[in-house]
Amino acid sequence: MDDKEFNALADAALARIEAAVEKSGADLDFEVQPGGVLEIEFEDGSKVIVNRHGVAREIWVAARSGGFHFRWDGSAWRDSRDNEELMAKLSRIASQQAGDAIELD
Length: 105
Known about the structure:
2 helices
């Protein structure tokens, strides 16, 4: 995958996450920072940070529960450790951090 393809895929993933947060109905604030960084803030002030890492060609997620790296497998962004799909993992992370079920799809 070249830089152009990675950036297009990462942009699409970040836009999908942003739309899913909006659509979720959960009490979450979010802000897109320059360079493709998405900050999702919870009611208690904690955050989940989602950003692209161009050198590794990965999407990185930082949360209370830890750090996660996602690689494109040709059809989806998958966690490099357990192969879980990005949106499924984000739903679980957000639910844990919020203390309430949050579905990001």
